[in-house]
């Protein structure tokens, strides 16, 4: 038997972007592999050839969207003049938006689905844990930078990272649910207020 041909990066990106868009339109429970294939203009067999289950596809889509998020903010973070500015950039980028500006859905649409499915899928659970740890480590590193520069009070940066990440997750859910009292602007204000209070700085 000949070896399975490799999936090109372009085709992989197309499949994962189609997965995100379809879940955004239909929700995870109502999304079938056939729906993703229709969005892509391909056959379900092609997708299942490379991704053996919906959980496997969601896992890869989550990792893909996480990388898209970090690629989008990297330039801003690299040019930011302070740790305070870097936290403000991360908070702004974390506020859910209808799309990313290029027509693709915001990566937030996958996270509630991943949280639910990861309770029953060890592979997805492990990927979710790695992404969350990386996110908290990024926040913690910025806080350590600010402490060293004298911008922030000397606090436990790991604890702060857990608190800020949890706050952003909770507020983002309210925004995605279109809660009448919590929109993206209020999420931004509350998150920045928490940073100012916890770190004794001004965002």
Question: How would you describe the overall organization of this protein?
Answer:
- This protein is an all-alpha fold and 203 residues long.
- It has helices at residues 9-26, 33-40, 44-50, 54-79, 83-94, 111-118, 122-148, 157-176, 184-199.
- The radius of gyration is 19 Å and the shape is elongated.
- The relative contact order is 0.11.
- The model has no long low-confidence stretch (mean pLDDT 87).
Name a few traits of the molecule:
single chain; 203 residues; mainly alpha; Tetracycline Repressor, domain 2; 9 helices; 0% strand; elongated
Describe the SSE topology.
Elements: H1 9-26, H2 33-40, H3 44-50, H4 54-79, H5 83-94, H6 111-118, H7 122-148, H8 157-176, H9 184-199
Helix pairs in contact: 1-2, 1-4, 2-3, 4-5, 4-6, 4-7, 5-7, 5-9, 6-7, 7-8, 8-9
Mean pLDDT: 87
Rg over CA atoms: 19 Å
Query: What form results from the Cα inertia axes?
Result: elongated
Which class of secondary structure composition applies to the elements?
Answer: mainly alpha
CATH class of the domain at 62-199: Mainly Alpha
> How far apart are the first and last residues' alpha carbons, in Å?
60 Å
Main sheet specs:
none
Strand-and-helix sequence, N→C?
HHHHHHHHH
Structure summary, number of beta strands? 0
Indicate the CATH architecture of the domain at 62-199: Orthogonal Bundle
Enumerate how many helices there are, as a single number.
Answer: 9
């Amino acid at each position: 038997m000949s070896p399975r041909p490799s999936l090109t990066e372009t085709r992989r990106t197309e499949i994962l972007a189609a997965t995100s868009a379809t879940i955004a339109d239909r929700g995870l429970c109502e999304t079938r592999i056939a729906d993703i294939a229709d969005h892509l203009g391909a056959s379900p067999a092609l997708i299942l050839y490379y991704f053996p289950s919906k959980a496997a596809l969601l896992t890869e889509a989550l990792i893909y969207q996480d990388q898209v998020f970090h690629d989008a903010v990297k330039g801003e973070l690299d040019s930011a003049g302070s740790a305070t500015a870097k936290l403000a950039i991360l908070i702004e980028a974390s506020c859910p938006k209808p799309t990313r500006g290029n027509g693709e859905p915001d990566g937030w649409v996958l996270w509630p689905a991943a949280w639910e499915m990861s309770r029953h899928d060890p592979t997805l659970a492990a990927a979710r844990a790695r992404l969350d740890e990386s996110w908290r480590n990024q926040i913690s590193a910025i806080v350590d930078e600010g402490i060293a520069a004298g911008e922030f009070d000397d606090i436990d940066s790991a604890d702060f990272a857990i608190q800020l990440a949890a706050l952003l997750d909770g507020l983002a859910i309210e925004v995605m649910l279109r809660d009448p009292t919590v929109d993206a602007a209020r999420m931004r204000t509350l998150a920045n207020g928490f940073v100012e209070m916890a770190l004794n700085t001004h965002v």
